[in-house]
Amino acid sequence: MRLKQTWRWFGPNDQVSLAHIRQAGVQGIVSALHHVPHGDVWTAAEISQHKAKIEAAGLTWDVVESVTVHEDIKTRSGNYQQYIAQYQESIRNIAACGIPVLTYNFMPVQDWTRTSVDYEMPDGAKALYFDLAELAMFDIYILKRKNAEASYDDNTLAKAAEKNKQYSSSQKDALVTTILLGIPGEKKLTPATLLERIEVYDNISREQLQNNLKYFLEQVSPVAEEAGIRLAIHPDDPPFDILGLPRIVSTQADLQFILDATGSKANGLCFCTGSLGANPDNDLPAMVKQFGSRIHFAHLRNVSRTAEGNFYEDAHLGGRVNMYAVMKELLRTQQSLSYQIPFRPDHGHQMLDDLQKTGVPGYSAIGRLRGLAELRGLELGIAENEGW
Ligand code: DNO
């Protein structure tokens, strides 16, 4: 059996329509109800309505990405018990609507973070980029987080100070917009709300956050298992602490901790090669081998690191992740399963006609099509060769 090729659709406002996605030749859709405020229940009625739109285009809704985990759950404070009950309710409703995989993340405060969305590749396409000194400049001089300096080494501090002098106010505004990009259709953070939320973590250690995740998993995994849902936690992106916040879904050991946190097989991973690949210590093919069928979903993309330790999103088959070896291990795992592991081409360069369009950074049609075509060919070649 082969993997299931899927595509992320942000809903009716996505610049890439379902009719166009169908032409990409994918089998399934990854989507979410982005208009539902974080923490609220996803009702069966709303899920069914969204599903009907996908099915009317001749596609199926295979993966929910994401039901966001409310901050009260991550910090285990305030109304966390009520939010967990509501999360359980959403899981049951998603299952009742027949969607088998649910992706989420446990990144404190912010989902994925980049400092630039238009890094020019040598071929003229544009890519997403993460520059630590720019983040430090934002943290120290714009956000003015207390003790922010303590999070950076001297070299980064010097570069951040230099950038703070050099950047015009419009360059700084653009940086703030990029860092706070978040997920389209969801409520945006401002620097002030970001700072407020970061401060809630002042007394939350890495161990505490891990305990909070374990507690959450103990509450939701049995519900998912009973309902027939495979949970898929997305790794931290980037896979290290930022803005003074602890990150606990970044390494092989972190992922093993999560899988060991409950005995339930419903508790699994979204294996994002781009996120995990930005940490040079992560050996991705070995990780696929180790986690096997606990990988419930895969995001396939690649990253390259610069000499300074920054990273950018490379072509899907370029970069430091050995995509051949990852794909081979995923396919090997697939052979012992009765359902297909879904993957999607994650992100893509802004290229060709996409360069003239404004859409969700990383999610332009042509760049992802290129990625999908390459990954699909790679999969076919390996599978045919192995007799899978
Ligand atoms: C970025 C995405 C993430 C992902 C969430 C999952 O492009 O991969 O935003 O959807 O972290 O919860």
Summarize the structure.
The chain is of the alpha/beta class. It has helices spanning 18-23, 44-56, 71-75, 80-96, 132-143, 154-166, 169-179, 191-199, 206-227, 252-260, 273-277, 284-291, 323-334, 365-386, and strands spanning 4-8, 28-31, 60-65, 101-105, 116-120, 126-130, 230-234, 267-272, 295-300, 302-305, 311-314, 342-345.
Overview of the structural elements:
This protein is an alpha/beta fold. It folds into 2 domains: 4-113 and 207-386, Alpha-Beta Barrel (TIM Barrel), CATH 3.20.20; 116-193, no CATH class. The chain has 14 helices and 12 strands. The strands form 2 sheets. An 8-stranded parallel barrel has the order 1-2-3-4-7-8-9-12, surrounded by 4 helices. The protein has a 4-stranded antiparallel β-sheet with strand order 5-6-11-10. Helix 4 (80-96) runs parallel beside helix 9 (206-227), helix 5 (132-143) packs across helix 6 (154-166) and helix 13 packs across helix 14. The mean pLDDT is 97. The structure holds D-mannose.
Attached small molecules: D-mannose
Question: The biggest beta sheet, please?
Answer: 8 strands, parallel, barrel
Number of domains: 2
- Count of runs of 4 or more consecutive helical residues: 14
**Mean pLDDT level:** 97
**CATH architecture level-2 label of the largest domain:** Alpha-Beta Barrel
Radius of gyration: 20 Å
Low-confidence stretches: none
Can you tell me the overall shape?
globular
Largest beta sheet: what is the strand line-up? 1-2-3-4-7-8-9-12
